[in-house]
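ligand=iron/sulfur cluster
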Amino acid sequence: MSVDEFSMSAEKRSHWLLSFWRSTVGKKVVMALTGAIGVGYVVAHMLGNLQVFEGAEKINAYAALLKSNLGLLWTARSILIAAVGLHIVAAYQLARTSQKSRPVGYKRWRSVGSDFASRTMRWTGPLLGLFIVYHLLHLTTGAVHPDFVEADVYQNVISGFRVWYVSVIYIVAMLMLALHLYHGAWSMFESLGVNHPKYNRLIRALATILTAIVVAGFIAIPAAVLLGFIS
Amino acid sequence: MHLTLNVWRQKNASVKGKLVRYEADDINPDMSFLEMLDVVNWQLIGKGEEPIAFEHDCREGICGSCGMMINGVAHGPRPATATCQLHMRHFKDGDTIYIEPWRSRAFPVLKDLVVDRSAFDRIIQAGGYISVSTGSAPEANSVLVTKQNSDLAMDAAACIGCGACVAACPNGSASLFTSAKISHLALLPQGQPEREGRVIKMVEAMDREGFGNCTMHRECEAVCPKAISVNFIARMNREYLRSLLKGEGLP
Ligand code: HEM
Ligand code: SF4
Ligand code: FES
């Protein structure tokens, strides 16, 4: 067989985008890219949120600014919704493939390579999904917020987190995010093939540091409200 | 040494199996794990029972046939060691050892500890080769390979196709094996002409066999008797994307 025949073999092949999506490697690339959008979003969101420490005017003005351009707002929201949607569909399909790959399990199995974060991705992911729904109903639409004031983000955050179990929900969710990011923010580089002996340790370190900063930044807010640092 | 073994016994591919307990006496710590099983089998044959079927050939870590789960770890507790190279001195007198076959939909159990690894052969058939015309060998120095690439290609080519990576992976993924095979050819000049088509076809073949997908648990690299690095999995992903972006090997 000539080289040409090999690479362009005559067998009927589906569109490249379809075979990309169907392959486990391609679907994992989708997970990594949509995950990376998520990582970018949580970093930006965390930094924006920290403005509650600068007082009501500052954060409310910031919130108003974000909502001032409806076109931009909905473009960003559409990208995020699409990313989360693709991320979930890919996660579900890949998880099913993996589950089906071992119909008979082991009587004894011992971990020698994985860690807690990698083994819990399929729990922390869906739990984050539930949290995202709750969070939107709580601080975006106010549907489950007992004292919701339209457009007064500062007030909504403070009165929301004064309810101790609401703060606990947020803090626990952020610990889930910590686990998900500790593994995901590293493994997305591997899924995309960004791997080189020179940078591998750096990538691992960056994922860990990023996880710590993002999660600490998010948790600081309910913690500060509960401890009475902001009111 | 005296050992208590719990060994998976299964008559053939179509019946159910179960763990059966055996007391193994007179085990010498200098025996390999397979020699220990040989002793147990002699005792079983002496009693008129069916010996434990396990696959083996080279008994020196190069053929890849001897894989089994030993106390829940593929090829047992020693890193970079195939079952045939594992010595009984790494166990203690009186230990209980669980021995199970590889578990994967793509590796059906044929008998006891023997599984059918033909799925790996089909992945290789899909592209894990180079097409060379016959004739006299070319002058060796006419094709240069950097030391770095030749070392890296050798690291990948060390894969013996044992299937431990699949067996150990919580996802039942064959990514370490497939990536090793894709990488050693992609790193060498001889592998270049078919490089783009190869990765697409081998990944498709891997998926077709029903293996799971890699989530970077890194269990595979920890049990691999040849210590193949998961960096090759990242390389496979990179090769896949490169092929996709270049557009070759695709209609
Ligand atoms: C909405 C609910 C979510 C679900 C169901 C989910 C599920 C998953 C699953 C199952 C994985 C694969 C785990 C693995 O490969 O070991 C994963 C990976 C990942 N997730 Fe999520 N996740 C969700 C939300 C998020 C969010 C909000 C982010 C961003 C902060 C995120 C970032 C990532 C990243 C970066 C990866 C790694 C991708 C890769 O390995 O290539 N996920 N997710
Ligand atoms: S990569 Fe390692 S564990 Fe997997 S088949 Fe090759 S030698 Fe065995
Ligand atoms: S018998 Fe050949 S690798 Fe173990």
